[in-house]
């Protein structure tokens, strides 16, 4: 299929073919498509108004959302396209807006994604503050539905890299390369004791990770890996909560413990006082939904322990920022995460549990 590289590539004939192939345009054709608005960020995002011939069904979508890769950021990986074409398409419960087309250009590393426009029914979240508790509970349920479907599934290796010793080492080594530039920049913004703790935990943690994968059952599943506030679409009234923008790096963990998505969402991004108020309720909601979706042999205590240990994993995220990006310009986003994570490790007793688990 054709990959759209710019909005100028979008034609009425192309859109007609896409909607027919998707089964939403059984008769008639697209006569006009116009940009309603744009929200360009890391990608080029267009809201579209669509007009049809008189014989088109009334149910054909009148608005759509088109996401294009930015030319200056190429080449990109196929990860987000594969989220819709390999993962979402197999997941029975609705966890994203309808995807009408997602294609990747292997030569240029470019993509397009054409989605249902849910702007009338859903809203996004800011990175500046946490969701209200009702939204947080719905986010936990969506994660549980994604995780439950892929839980210990025999074909996990077709949509992710299984966490072998090599994969874990690749992930850890990439992140720990950020230790020297992070500590050099931070100076006495954190204590020597905290620096020693970060070094020790990030050195010890991979041993637990490998040991955890060897447990039977291992409770491994496909993870999103980047479920911060801006990657959620929340219903304004009733409806499904959507998780979008899954774009792992080639060194990222893509198959791991579902609890890691929850710790990333809460430990890494939420203010500690808010997290401490709601994290157990959110985790219990997640666990209840896992069981409702058919996951067995995974107790509440196992989830709680996995979550406490996955809190340590949040240290690798700011380390990756420091390893791969200019340290000072990005410090506004990664430095608070160091503080949040150290607070969670102390609050949850994660260090003590790690030592007991090795």
Structural notes for this entry:
With 358 residues, the chain is of the alpha+beta class. The protein folds into 2 domains: 110 residues, 2-Layer Sandwich (Phosphorylase Kinase, domain 1); 234 residues, Alpha-Beta Complex (Aminoglycoside 3'-phosphotransferase, Chain: A, domain 2). It has 12 helices and 10 strands. It has a 5-stranded antiparallel beta sheet with strand order 1-2-3-5-4. The chain has a 3-stranded antiparallel beta sheet with strand order 6-8-9, with helices on one face. Helix 3 packs across helix 8 and helix 4 crosses helix 10.
What's this entry about, in short?
The chain is α+β, with helices and mostly antiparallel strands and 358 residues long. It has helices at 12-22, 79-88, 133-150, 165-176, 179-186, 192-213, 258-266, 272-292, 300-313, 316-324, 331-348, 350-357; strands spanning 30-38, 43-52, 63-69, 99-105, 110-116, 122-124, 220-222, 232-235, 242-243, 255-257.
